[in-house]
Amino acid sequence: MLALRRTVHSCNKGRIINGVNSIRFNSTTAGASSNGRLRTAVSVAVLVTSGTLVGFYYIDSRSALHRYAVMPLIRAAMEPEMGHKFAVKVLATGLAPRDLKGDNESIAVELWGHKISNPVGLAAGFDKDGEAIEALFNLGFGWVEIGSVTPKPQEGNSKPRFFHLPEYNAIINRYGFPSQGHAVVLSRIRTYLASNSPETRSQKILALNLGKNKSSPPDSTSDFITGVEKFGPLVDVLVINVSSPNTPGLRGMQGRGALEELLDEVIKARDALPARKLSEWKWEKAKVVVKIAPDLTEEEVDGIAEAVKTSAVDGVIVSNTTVQRPADVISVHSTETGGLSGPPLKPLSLTALRHLRSRLPENVPIIGCGGISNGDDALEYASNGATLVQLYTSFGYGGVGTPRRIKDEITSSIQAKATTWSSLTSSAISNLAWKKPTPESAETLLKKQSDELKSVLDQAGKQIALGEELFVLAQKSVGDPQHVVSVHPERPSADVTPPSQHNLGHEGEKSLEDLIREVEGVLGIHDAPKTP
Whole-prediction pTM value? Predict the structure, then answer.
């Protein structure tokens, strides 16, 4: 009996111990599970937060990541042309960064009577086929220019044809208008217009740069006319590119005669297009501008100015790339054939801009392009008469944040001076632009004629006085001082010197030849002869 009680007690004790252990085990398991779920939740939260922050950092074009990490990595990992194409493709995906900051009112610009949100544009050559129009506007450009676009597709020049000069943040290219042709680009522009209402496009300029096929005759204008007819109804601005150095014979069209003929035909083709609704477009007809080279002489720039005024073209872009190689640009690729762009181009473009501005009236805007890398560069163009500016090479080196950085620098500078971009440019253009001579008033004209007549009479009086002196001299020269008389009784006769003191000949008289020579001496024709 005692043994049975002990057995039962032991069993009960074991159950109790096992129960306690079971409770302890279950409690520990529950705690571990709870801790695991907590760690998982924290990890997910960290990943989501980090991803969100990285996403915002990426999507904001101002992030230093793009300028100091992404762009150097692309340049190091890819050939220049491949890097260029990669950048365009990334932008075209719709996953590109954006300018999340609005433009300050102080940098707004008026162009042909229409307000544009900012003066920083993208030059042709980056998006050659219109693949990333919307993405480029989303980066904050006020003007996006696609092309050059040729009527028929063409490959352009042979590779390699695109070179970095990193020591100077410069580029040399000899692309030669590689283009997918009119049909492809037309389709892309229509897609952009269909997805962007007139309101969203109201303060942005879409420009298209027209080029010529390499197979077209050098002096033919048909490629440009075809481009005007096809793209004129769909863009804000048409750019006539006669200044690329990479298409044989193209720059020859910058001569005054050839350019006048081309621009006259272009304007006629533009004017023949149907008028557009102003409720949907900025202007009834697309504006036409011509893009010129920086390598022109002053006389050639004068000829372009006359062609622009004669043809009534709406504006000029100064300038394209240069074929010159400044002496201080020494690089592995500096001797490559093609157009040089970047900071070394800036002095040449500014020189061309200043001269052209002095030859064109205020109502013809000039768009400055060439070596603009920061806000100060843009303001220098503005102070020399540019209405707005365009970037190309600095965008390639600096990446997607470049337009916002330059806009911020412009804003900071002009606000420090308590002015605006429009005020600065208007003042510069007013001071530097060519002005048509104003007709003279009747009073001014009469005074001018009176002064001219007085001058003529004064000269006549001097001639009469000289004639009297010569008459006296002639009388003295023939040795008859007693008959020397003054033409004017009120004027005393000239002092009469005895013949012996006038270098007379052996018989007291001079020969006719001697007299003529002495008269010539008095008139300053040559020194009078010395008679022995």
Answer: 0.76
